[in-house]
Amino acid sequence: MTNLITSTKNVSLTGDLKVDGLFSGTAWNGTITYAFPTTSESYAYSGEKDYQFSSISSQQQSLALFFMEQSYGNAANDGFSVEGFTNANFEAGSAGTATVRFAESWLPPTAWAYTPDQGEAAGDVWFGTEYAGTEDDLRFPGFGNYAGQTVAHELGHALGLKHAHEPDFVHNPRVVPSAYDSLEYTIMTYHTYVGDNLSGYKYEHDGAPQTFMMLDIAALQEMYGADYTTNSGDTVYKWNPNQGITYVNGVAAITPDANRIFATIWDGGGIDTYDLSAYTTALKIDLRAGGYSVFSQSQLADLGGGPNNGYARGNIFNALLYQDNVASLIENAQGGSGNDTIIGNEADNTLWGNAGDDSLSGGSGNDTLIGGTGNDTYIVDDLGDVVTEGLNQGTDLINTSLSSYALTNIANVENLTYTGSASFTGTGNALANRITGGAGNDLLDGGAGSDTLIGGAGNDIYVVDNSFDFVFEVANQGRIQSGRRFQAIRSATMSRT
Prior knowledge:
It contains five helices and 34 strands.
């Protein structure tokens, strides 16, 4: 821009290298205006404008607006824009004075941009022509291709982000730790995957990130604040196995050319849901901040190498918490018909396994776990967790670390296993239960039904009230309370009271 109409501010370090490694040192302080100049006369300084200047394509303008403006397009786009996940305010400006300007020049070999501290050129983005006529032609960006990533990457520079892998020994010598220095975490790196070299991006044609990724979002929020009004209602994010489209409340937000899903979700609040009910694959859904979910192998981006057999480690990544505010967490998840693994977070989650042999773990919080059909496993670690299982929907198991747990209020769950290390009291229901204790002094009561009680180590007590109850006990380490005959499987004599 010709003059610093938008002032700048210094950016303070957070102490977290994952974020600090992306700071150029300055950010804009005030409304950020933008423009798409159509003539070189809009630029007062010499350089790029003097080398076959051209305005950028309509496709480049559209994607730049998508990444900047919350109001661009439909409401489904909001959470993927910088204005949507930060408090930065973007407005259209004059071609001669706008804060951020986009144009094309022969001078850059690929593309470059100037950070807010770089004087007269600060905020200007220039796209080169080296790839013109190839599949990486920067004039034709899309979600997931090199040209699309380049738009977001250069905008990141113009807003104050530096390269993740590259120290700036004048302003910020820090880099993002190697375990996070990949496109899975930030679009501001040249490392395609963790452990990659700097010989160029290795991903397939449509294998680039489709959005800013979690570290980019975190760094920009430290610079400009976090916007919790975006998608602050009860938002549903939905995907299906036949398309790479990300739907937000039923409206397409990200429509890539290929069937790839590679994006990060920021959500401002509300009771939100990831809906994968259309899938038949074995889903791995993780709702924790900074977690990632795998929907299907065929929809993972091929990164051309790395620790995950050459593929991105996830399809959808969750944003990090800003200043530990849990409002941005996704609360609920719908599994598909495969054998799914769903992990919650510290919010009060509702997790639906649906069909298949699912594993549901709510994490901390008062969670509702609904298995559906299949032989499901529930991980219960909070007294407020509620397990819901229908009649004749499979043989199900609750794993719990709580010191006491009863199946009496869960009529259709058969099995209970203690996963802690202290003493445990486990109580069954009217079904044929299998109750397994731990290494402590456990009290196991199968209740009605033909039960199997397994105490393990420790001086365990078994309550036996059915002649078909089975007891498994380590030698000389338990005693049985019984008013009936029973069958005991044991390695030594047990006392009976």
